[in-house]
Fold:
Amino acid sequence: MATHRSSRWSQRRLAPWLFLAPGALLFLLYVIIPIGQSVWISFYDWDGLGAATWIGLRNYADLLDDDSFYTSLRNNVWWLVLYLLAIPAGLAIALFLNQTVTGIRLYKSLFFFPFVISQVVVGLIFSWFYAPDFGLLPRILGFLTGTETAILADERYATFGIIAAGLWPQIAYCMILYLTGLNNINPEQVEAARMDNARGFAMLWHIVLPQLRPATFIALVVTVIGALRSFDLVSIMTAGGPYGSTRVLSYFMYEQSLSEYGTAMGYGAAIAVVLFAIMLVFISLFITRMLMQERNA
Amino acid sequence: MFPRPIQKSPPWLQLSYKALLPVALVIWLLPLIGIAVTSVRPSSDLAAGNYFGWPSRFAGVENYASVFQNSNIGWYILNSFKVTIPTVIGAVGLSCLTGFALAVYKFRLNLAVFFMFVAGNFVPFQILAIPVRELTLRLGLYDTITGLVLFHAAFQTGFCTLFMRNFIKALPFALIESARVEGVSEWKIFRHIVLPLMRPAIAALSVLIFTFVWNDYFWATIMAQSADVRPVTAGMNELKGQWKVAWELITAASIVAALPPVAMFFLMQKHFIAGLTLGATKG
Structure:
């Protein structure tokens, strides 16, 4: 009996590791270890084929002298700041659609639709939408202002044109998060506040938004990550142009190390490390918050 | 309910709300409607400058047929399925195990392992790209479906583990306790008690991962070169370069490429949204 019990006990100690092993090993191999390797590669001068030479921090020093790096960084900041608009915009659409009239379910699905389409297709759709001569937007702008602008060919507007394309699915994502959140708010609290004559914006701010906090948190996480991950749209819509003005760090890294002519592995890795470091700030914030919730649970 | 139900508003407001809905929808989907219409336009319309008017005739059949005849898109779509389906099975299967381990057992590294999965799931792809491509090359799997599947399955296991672990945590733990008292082995507890209850989570994750992986562009670009491996997202970029201004073809191809995840979404909408909004209500 005693041996039986101890075997049960050891089974229960061993079991989690056996269950974890396949997934965790694969995840280590393809995700966790490569992070360390990239950091390591960033200290080398390496063309991906020949021998690698240790150059310490030179790749990083070179980055600081590279105008493309500053352009990419500045664009990443624009992406981050403007992408955050997806959160209030998603909330606004969710509030607009949070009614029970006939067909509303279909409306909600169709509003969500842009999120399901791949960014490649979103990029193509907006390239068409912006295209000079026959695109819809230049036509509308031409009608309103008298001059047609080729948005993606103009250094001043190209990045913003791409961000707008990215906002389209991102707003849809935030909308669906808020619709789910609104579905679950406490109706009694809302009714009680209504009795106290709270309405409109005051109601939204003091009663509804606090209850939507979990939705807002997730919307913030996915929006920040989405903004910093932006790659597909830049690649499809402008390939970093015109004159490199729409580069972001992810695309800049791709150009340096992964594209047809990109052989600067160490330099690209250094760019990736910078992007990773920026993301790490946000990842740490998210994890800290999640950890606090775990402790409270 | 917030905002106040429209039924409590005066009739004119209800009426204008119902009128506003379709208008708002059309504006919201304007770019999409635009490409849908363009994809059924004869190319002569585009040449003649008829970009916005009603198509002079319906050329949908010939445009879509010519997309399939003049490009490898049929292959690319097949490749996307070949990458996506095994990835879904792999990532969801692995995360049933990892999620179970992290939700049911108390051990010292539990939270550390859990947050390894969570954090890894947020990293930028570029920090993984060079080593992952090297690894795939060394395994002899560069430019193969298997190479793509292995990476995607590994990466998606991060998100899936987060999801599964939280799902199993919300199940009644008494079920597991009483089975243990009965002397049921840990594997049988997983297989016969927990796994059957995970069906909704498995469904939700499957549609989500299907969409994520189908829509992947970055890895499709850097890990696949030949036409019999290249997924449709990377293929689209190639076709865009090839067809330049033949927008009736590019738009038709876009719609074809977008169709599988869209169909998936409309068929399994409830599961899709349940997966996406996990955590949007509590926590």
Summary: Chain A is about 75% helix and 0% strand. Chain A touches chain B through 110 residues (CB under 8 Å).
